[in-house]
Amino acid sequence: MADTLPGKPFPLGATVHHDGVNFSVFAKNCEAVDLLLFDRHDESRPSRIIPLHPKLNKTFYYWHCFVPGAHHGQLYGYRVHGDYAPDRWLRFDGSKVLVDPYARAVMYTDNYSREAAKQRGEDSCARAMKSVVIDSRGYDWEGDAPLQRHHGATVIYEMHVGGFTRHPGSGVEPSRRGSYLGLIDKISYLQSLGITAVELLPVQQFDEQDALPGLVNYWGYSPVAFFAPHRGYAARRDDPLSPVNEFREMVKALHRAGIEVILDVVFNHTAESDEAGPTLSWRGFEDQAYYILQEGGRYANYTGCGNTINGYHSIGRRMIMDCLHHWVQAMHVDGFRFDLASVLTRDEAGQPISSPPLLWEIESDPILAGTKIIAEAWDAAGLYQVGSFIGDRWSEWNGQYRDDARRFVKGDEGVAPRLAARLTGSPDLFAAPDRDPGRSINFITCHDGFTLNDLVSYSAKRNEANRQNNSDGSDYNWSWNCGAEGPSDDPAINALRTRQMKNLLAILLVSHGTPMLLMGDEIRRTQRGNNNAFCQNNETSWLDWGDLSRHADMLRFTREIIRFNRAHSLFHAGQFWGSGPAEGSDRPRVSWHGVRLNQPDWNHPSHSLAFELCDPATGDHLHIMLNAYWEPLDFDLPPLPPGQRWMRVADTALPSPDDIAEPGREAAVMRARYRVMERSVVVLMAK
Asked: Are 173 and 132 in contact (CB under 8 A)?
């Protein structure tokens, strides 16, 4: 390899040219930087060490070098030398091999050790992750592009790339199980379900060892390299280039099937944790640029994970924006769900600010203009911004939707008026009259908490397998076991559980907003009461494909209620539903009833609600009755014009297949009243 050249400070990261690679990294307060090149990922020593000269290889705070002959697939890392003085916010340790914050891929062997990166002064080279040079230009996308589907036409399926096909019963070839390629093998299942977007739990390279000894970090909320697809989901893990190539193959295949790809991105903390954590990347380059620090060099912890990314600092802000651009432009993803997004509203002192620059940049950025941007609008330090998150584009996970729907179906009092707001797009939370209701991401369950099956099977969490004395995970689940804790042989209890799950799914899919389902809820996936299975990379978390046949009735119900949702544009309307009849309006209208017409029961003890939907633009006319009471209730039905009658789309009290009708096979309702059985939901459509 020829002698090096000074190189350029831009672009950051490793950039491939026809005759070599330019390397550039930010490090303000260090004394020296070494670029390390490796010939193999299992090398314990670098094949070449290139000391970067502060006069020749440094522009302002950027260290750079051009290496002739270096190429796509080259492995590299950095050592950064300087003072170790946490009280002055300096944590340089030249013994540590650092991952490039802009690395497009990361390579490591089974010898990787998180512990080796914790001991100050101990050489981590033999057991460290290495960065990989990636040339993003050479891939053949075959005309692919992000789909840019409107929120209103979206049904989201939150899923885990590994857990989706890792179970032996998946039918996927063993070498492809738990991988990007394995997911491709199951796209037909996703299509049959009717979802339009997958929201992938973190696929940015994370540290699987960030867990108690003997456990693994399964969910992936422990990032090491924001630009790099997780190597653990590659079928060919010994190939430095495979994570990038296989991820792109997956995206391209999903797009061909009409399915968008949304990434759950973790820009609120990293795998380096607190003061006792490992030095893997950012803290070894410039601690105070990437993290919110407190007096004495301690890490602010607004995330519950030991540290907090400084999204207010220009360097951290630029890194996040560059990363989002990379995933959209080079990897063709369709959107992002920002984990603990409220962290990004905090300034360098950790104080929430009303106009956070990073969030406005994301909102207004032209490269991201066609993407979905979804906020988990809270953090772990008590900041809760659902309904008040900034911007005109941001969607929000509606945690209040989850809680109110659960409480109503469970049978709690005082919830009926709140549920009415959730059904209609939560106008009480999202008060702007011109706001698109599709920006409310409605969900009953997600990765964090009980699965749908466990929500109706456990009244208390069962997290002993996490080895934290059952102290982890939320204690506020609004769950009910229907009469027995855990698995039951009682047919009546199991029938009630099935009905309750169908009730929750029906409510979700007849609400105004964008629905999100959790992987496996459609076939009663259970985590055996574990409501925080972040460290369970085993059958606790994996999708058991045998449940497709064991719970075929649930699968059929889910498919049909999703199909019903997608067939009726009023659920996707870009304006909030109006109230009551309005002549000459093309806006969908909602009218509230109880067991008697026009007499909704908003009283505290109420367990019932009925609402009528009319869409003048399409002629859709629906009547939906919810009975969370433990006895049957007879509901009056609204009168219809001559020649029309009410047809039963769904009744969750009926056995399959009568619980929900396929299009064109709805049963006629011949009476002016309908008996809604205890704890059930009925959906009628006028024809």
From this structure: no
Domains of the chain, residue spans: 13-132, 577-686
Comparing C-alpha atoms, which of 205, 163, 165 is closest to residue 183? 165
How far apart CA 155 and CA 513 sit, in angstroms, is: 10
**Nearest-angstrom CA–CA distance, 180 and 231:** 10
DSSP 140: -
Quote the CATH superfamily of domain 13-132: Immunoglobulins (2.60.40.10)
CA 44 to chain CA centroid, Å, is 36
Instruction: Please answer whether residues 40 and 111 qualify as being in contact, where contact means their C-beta atoms are separated by less than 8 angstroms.
Output: no
CA distance 80 to 52: 10
Give the pLDDT confidence of 89-141 residue by residue, as tens digits.
999 999 999 999 999 999 998 899 999 999 999 999 999 999 999 998 989 99
Per the structure block, which two tokens stand in for 384?
């809760």
| Active centre residues (catalytic) | 339, 376
CA angle, corner 463, sides to 458 and 467, nearest 5?
A: 165
- What single DSSP character describes residue 212? S
Burial class of residue 275 in the structure, from the number of CB atoms within 10 Å of its CB (0-12 exposed, 13-18 middle, 19+ buried): middle
Which pairs with CB-CB distance under 8 Å and at least 24 residues apart come from 471-479? 472/532, 473/449, 473/530, 473/531, 473/532, 474/448, 474/449, 474/531, 474/532, 477/406, 477/449, 477/450, 477/531, 478/403, 478/406, 478/407, 478/410, 478/412, 479/406, 479/410, 479/450, 479/454, 479/455
pTM, two decimals, is 0.97
* Domain 577-686: homologous superfamily in CATH: Golgi alpha-mannosidase II (2.60.40.1180)
Phi/psi of residue 557, nearest 5 degrees: -60, -45
Question: What is d(CA 488, CA 414) in angstroms, rounded to the nearest whole number?
Answer: 30
| pLDDT surpasses 90 at 41 | no
Closest to 183 (Cα-Cα) out of 247, 116, 96: 247
The reported pLDDT for the residue numbered 2 is: 67
Confidence tier at 249 by pLDDT (50, 70, 90): very high
Other CB atoms closer than 10 Å to residue 135's CB: what's the count? 17
Tell me the pLDDT of the chain averaged across its residues: 96
